[in-house]
Specification:
DNA-binding, 11 helices, about 250 residues, Arc Repressor Mutant, subunit A, homodimer, mainly alpha, 2 domains, about 0% strand
Chain lengths: ~250, ~250
DNA sequence: ACAGAATTCAAACACTTGTTTAATATTGAT
DNA sequence: ATCAATATTAAACAAGTGTTTGAATTCTGT
């Protein structure tokens, strides 16, 4: 259901390579995908109307159904074109870390890779915003495929890398440790996004910045500091709970 | 806007003491509040229709507007009656910890109180589910009051308690540390909720349980284990990053 | 330049949304 | 018991939803 390429003319490959810029010299179908990605991420699936999508993409309302056979399918197309890119970036980042360190990376390095890939991907395009949102809300059934194809492989790769870094970590421990790291990542992502959406509400913005000044930084700096914090925090935790055995 | 008691006959005090049972021997207004709390938590504000609410509460559709002057107000009433209870539980838990330890608690104790109150509250009634959901999604503007009245005092109390436990922690550090802890809490809550909502989808359920077996436990046990993990993980992190100075 | 397919469009579709109405029923104080 | 205030009801409301239609337009291969 997730990967049903409902394109009439199958151009999935080229679509995946699109820079996804906000310029509107694309074809209507691409414009719709771009607009949808942005709107779904900003407001959630249920809060975006087809007419709103059409207006944002500057196409006719019927275009949604002509090109995607419905709003739901458009949503899934939006996800599936970003989805695998993000996963592959993380997998490849972890792999190249293992290569560079001859299979014995530092714990902090593993977490650093995992966090920075995730954060950067989540904040620079709105894909992971959507994922996070739909993981938390959503109908439920949609996520099975997502879990199998996105979460599971990444989870496995992280487990492998962490065990390579700290052999005293057992699989059961990893379930908890990785959950703690992922929880932090999501929280720092959502905080940032929330802050962005309050940009035009001075009162709300002021409160958020007071509670968390780092939100005022530009994105690169935010990613850098946050990655650093999560990696140090989590590494310290792992060092404390599962010290190296010699 | 958050605390506008739009009751015709003001019975806010008694409402706050209601056990919120699922029995329907309440008055229609209470039944609506109960049904709304459950449905909003399960599906989100936008995904629940007024007719659905009315049916669940076994009242007429018009009752929503008669008693609450609109769906939005009902939502805010639902929040505001649970809202302060949860906050006060945490504040009071932290205070009594400080009392018992003569102002010098252990870091792990502070986190333990904070996490267990939050987890227990979030999982036994659906209030915090709603909050979490609306924090992540939602319009944005609604949250200002919530932030001021709920988040800010709790944040301040936790900061105070953590500094009492580990004076080497500075306010700037606390912004990051507390965020890391809260992120973990939210993640373990949402995981649990997600799992509940997959109860009738064997395939999805199996995947989730395989990735995280603790989700199969009953709630008390889940809260216990999770509280324990987060407290140990975070304490180890704090010990590593901000050791006691002697 | 033409025919045929693919696309775009305004309009309408059937349906759901939150809210209101006006009539009816219930309640509670005198 | 009475009467006004309160509460509940079925029905209707206007506005918005996702989707479909069929004619008009643009594109494409010959």
């Amino acid at each position: 259901m997730f990967f049903t390429k409902s394109y009439k003319t199958n151009r999935l490959e080229t679509v995946l390579d699109e820079p996804l810029s906000r310029s509107n010299d694309h074809q209507p179908k691409e414009r719709l995908l771009d607009a949808a990605e942005e709107l779904f991420a900003a407001k959630g699936f249920g809060e975006v109307s087809v007419r709103e999508l059409a207006a944002a993409a500057d196409v006719n309302v019927a275009a949604v159904n002509y090109h995607f056979q419905g709003k739901e399918n458009l949503f899934q197309e939006v996800i599936s074109r970003r989805f695998s890119i993000q996963r592959d970036r993380t997998l490849q980042g972890l792999q190249s870390l293992l290569d560079q360190t001859e299979g014995r990376p530092q714990v902090e390095q593993v977490i650093q890779v995992m966090v920075s890939e995730y954060l950067d991907g989540a904040l620079s395009n709105s894909f992971l915003t959507m994922i996070t949102r739909e993981m938390h809300g959503g109908k439920g059934g949609t996520h099975v495929e997502f879990f199998k194809q996105m979460v599971a492989p990444v989870f496995a790769a992280i487990s492998k890398a962490l065990i390579a870094a700290r052999p005293s970590l057992k699989q059961e421990d990893l379930n908890w440790v990785i959950a703690s790291i992922v929880g932090q990542i999501h929280h720092f992502i959502l905080r940032r996004i929330k802050c962005k959406s309050c940009q035009d509400m001075p009162e709300a913005l002021e409160i958020m910045l007071k509670a968390f000044p780092a939100l005022a930084l530009d994105q690169d700096e935010y990613v850098r500091l946050t990655t650093n914090h999560i990696a140090r925090f989590s590494t310290a935790a792992i060092d404390g709970m599962y010290p190296e055995e010699n």
